[in-house]
């Protein structure tokens, strides 16, 4: 059946993002939402991921590949009193551009697991380091995107692209999740999203209801994911993070965070000390 909402291409010009996570005590997090295709490398300690009935334990010798839209339970396990990992998230436009440049690469991704790991070899290690350097040194966005495509190409040449190129299908909720991740907090309103997808608010609500979800649920999932990133990778006060991620009060944010992840923001911060 033809959709009654036009699915628009996402804005170009947004580059990959790098999140650096450190902890001194074990972290246990449930229902962690990976909104964008992401690549993770553990530099110290180990990471355990569980999704469905599957589990992956990984260390420093691999890159972990996570498909967009994946939800996983995560354990970050320090070694020698420290856990450290780097995660690069790839915007939808970059992934789509790579599919267009290298037709057919997405076919194997369609059948791949949502979470996988690949041993680091010379080409992938070189491409990974180059991408991190471009992001850290704030190179032009075009250069950052080119470096990210270089890493995707190195992975695909090894037949190890995993689910990074997986297309999430026609579900409008999937497209809205990724769209919300690209927006500033003040732009994440039902009205603004409906306008971006060239439909009325009532039409958008109706489509989401067909998929047994709603705009508030999608927004909450995205906001909690962004808050988790900031709690782990920055020293901003919890109240500031709550406000920046769209929550009216720190207490409501703390309650919702604990309900979702099984740990409060302050407890999570204590694992970083």
TrEMBL record:
InterPro entries: Homeodomain-like_sf, HTH_AraC, HTH_AraC-typ_CS, Tscrpt_reg_AraC-type_HTH
Keyword terms of this UniProt record: DNA-binding, Transcription, Transcription regulation
Domain HTH araC/xylS-type per the UniProt entry, residue ranges: 170-271
Single GO cellular component term: cytosol
GO molecular function term, any single one: transcription cis-regulatory region binding
UniProt key word Transcription regulation: yes
PANTHER family cross-referenced by the UniProt entry: HTH-TYPE TRANSCRIPTIONAL REGULATOR GADX (PTHR47894)
Name used for this protein in its record: AraC family transcriptional regulator
């Amino acid at each position: 059946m033809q959709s009654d909402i036009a699915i628009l291409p996402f804005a170009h010009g947004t580059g990959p993002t790098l999140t650096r996570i450190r902890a001194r005590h074990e972290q246990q997090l449930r229902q962690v939402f990976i909104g964008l295709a992401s690549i993770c490398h553990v530099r110290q300690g180990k990471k355990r991921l569980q999704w469905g009935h599957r589990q992956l334990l990984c260390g420093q010798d691999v890159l972990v590949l996570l498909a967009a839209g994946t939800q996983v339970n995560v354990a970050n396990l320090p070694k020698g009193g420290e856990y450290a990992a780097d995660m690069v998230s790839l915007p939808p436009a970059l992934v789509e551009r790579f599919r267009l440049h290298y037709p057919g690469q997405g076919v194997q991704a369609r059948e791949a697991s949502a979470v996988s790991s690949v041993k680091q070899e010379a080409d992938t290690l070189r491409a990974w380091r180059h991408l991190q350097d471009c992001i850290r040194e704030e190179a032009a966005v075009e250069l950052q995107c080119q470096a990210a495509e270089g890493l995707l190409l190195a992975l695909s040449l090894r037949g190890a692209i995993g689910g990074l190129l997986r297309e999430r299908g026609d579900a409008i909720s999937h497209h809205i999740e990724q769209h919300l991740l690209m927006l500033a907090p003040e732009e994440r309103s039902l009205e603004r999203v409906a306008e971006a997808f060239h439909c009325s608010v009532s039409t958008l609500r109706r489509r989401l209801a067909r998929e047994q979800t709603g705009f508030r649920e999608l927004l909450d999932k995205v906001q909690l994911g962004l808050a988790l990133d900031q709690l782990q990778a920055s020293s901003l006060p919890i109240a500031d993070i709550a406000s920046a991620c769209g929550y009216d009060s720190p207490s409501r944010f703390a309650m919702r965070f604990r309900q979702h992840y099984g740990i409060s923001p302050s407890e999570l911060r204590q694992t970083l000390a």
